Amino acid sequence: MDNRKQHRYMIQNGDVLRRIAPDIVRGFGTKELLRSLEDSQDFINQEVSRLESDYKKTSQENMLDEVFVAVDYPKTYVAKSYQIASLYRESGLTVVGTAEWQDPNNEVGRCDIVRGTIEAFKTVASIAQDAVTNKIKNEIDRVWGIELLSPIDSVDSTIRQLSDIAEVVELSFFDVPDIQELLMRLNEILQLEIPLSKDDVIRVDGVLYLYLKTTNSNIAALRDANFIQKASVQRLNQFNPLRSAAVATARDMYSAKQRRNNLIYTAPSRPLPVVGLIDGGVDFRAGDFLERVHEAYSVEALPSNLALEHGTSVASVLMYGELPSRGGQVTPDLAVESIRVLPSQTDDLMLSLIDVDNILKEAIPELSQIKIWNISVGPRGPVMDDHIGSLTAILDKLAFQYNVLFVIAMGNTGQEQGIARRMQTPADAVNNLAVTAFTNLFGDHQTAAYSSIGPGREGGKMKPDISGHGGSENNDPILTLSTSEWFLNEQQGTSFAAPLVARLLTMALWRFPELNVLDLRAAVTQYLALNFDRGRDIYFDSKGELSSDVERLIEAAPNEFRIKYSGELTAGADVLMNVPIPEYFQDKTIELTWTTAVKTDVDPSRPDAYTKFGIEDTLYPDADKYEFYNKETNKVQRQRTDDEEAVQVLLENGFTQRQQPVAHDKAYLTTPNPLDSKDEASRRRQLKWDTVKSQKLNVRVNSLNRPFIKLHALSRDASHERVSYSVILSIRGKNDLGLYQRTLSRFPQLIPTIERVDSGRV
Asked: Where is the signal peptide (predicted)?
């Protein structure tokens, strides 16, 4: 079958249009000092003296041998390149994390979380007084505060706002070198009946996580105690090594209404693609309907009826989609590999994140051939900006290391109040997809009132990603298999919207095996961008819905040419992607839409800078149009360089040509702030470090001259690691039905995506 004749499939080898970017001399202007040297020295001395005084006033039960201190930077010094590394090194201090910080004027700056002995911090003042090098002189000017850390704000906000649902709390600690010392101090403070041990702690990079359970009778006391109470009120809100706290109770599960099962099972006649399931397990008593489910891993605790019912329903959606209400024959489209993570303790606690984290770190590497995983379970507490949950960090790291994609349910807290409405962990995972739910109401799709809302966190702010049909129990239920072969469940929730998306993505990878999961993320987001209404509120309604026809993810519209560029780029380097332009357009104006997706490692110790890598993408419509500037007059003039006489006149009049052509203004979809700021703090609040982002703009055809998109790879720590990317570009005319074929004719080296011959059109 010749795909080129019958389909307008996306071009898969856009890399052949890639070219090396010319070297650019990047200027780094010196910043004007905020204070005189003497003022900076006095300020450092005062801050260290205050730190020493606060240390002496603080109960030593809240301290370890080394203390954790915040070193604050003002708004103008947010980028990591301004870190006072020399001062830390000479003082013997260790940076163990970063966070956002607000100055007295409510400007957003940054703080380093620094570990060291109190004597080492006193050394900072001595070094500042000497200040023999220009580097030290410049560094002490950047320090805007030095303060002893305590987690009181995080603990208060977690408990006071969410104590009515709190049963389990996840504690996040800074990088403590001696875990035994930490546990000993915690046991002294909490006076637990069963002392904490190393088995109660997990480490994700430089962050330690610990989980503590409270009982319902303790919840009222939490408001007064600020944190936790067992036999008597105990306080952790001054405990220096504690970074943050978040509610980690298991998400609610409910018994579903049921109706009689009038379906007839028909076995598939061919091998099935496999999708992964992380849930409460599957009850195989449901008969032949679930014969294509295999449980690969499970926690030690015996399964519970409620968790099994939930897991069986989710598996049903993955395999069959929505079951028909009128009955008839059904055949599964997918096989399921299940990891049972609930319940993960033998008592009434449904969820132990330590067990979940450990089993996933073991199972996913062993099952890495399964590329799409659905997860509709997790902690019930909302995402907190200063707290990165262990499950979020682990899923992001597994996605990065093993090239898998987790499709995650947003949660069903949309009808609660305040921050409790926000998306639930781990839907904030930045390398993965978060799914909200819609219902069918009078023939119209409306976001379900129960759906948790965005935004996501730094690196993935535009969440939720996708809407799926989650239904309504009363008038729009999702029909699924149950734990009994005689009955079907009538379900609702984001738990059942997510597997509808996961099954489509699994089918897409099966149909188009040349795609990897990063390409798939880009393709999904590009499809949503092409159909995006700029009035849509992403935080409530997501970026859009997918078609049930997986072909639509890959096939261009009749008036469209679509191309994929993918590869790796060394951090700090640039690459230019030529935009393929046909011999002519039938329209005077065309629409350019492109999506950039990047795969990144993450750092849970830096919630303000969670993603380690990023890509900046910029369109240059005319390769020959440059700005010329005159330093003396401060005049700027644009001129095409193919007009040699005009260029010569500018040069003779003291103008200098800039190094790059004139760039088009950024046109990111859903960017909450204007993109004209060069301030690092403002750029972070936009999409600079987001792992997936789309731009959409209209350009006049006569303004295009050898257009290209420049990609610039970013690294937070200035390393030169390779950054994986996938960029999908669509060129659309209004009624230009021959655009695809004309572009292919002009660029015969371009090859459309190939469909699997035995795909069976799943």
From this structure: none
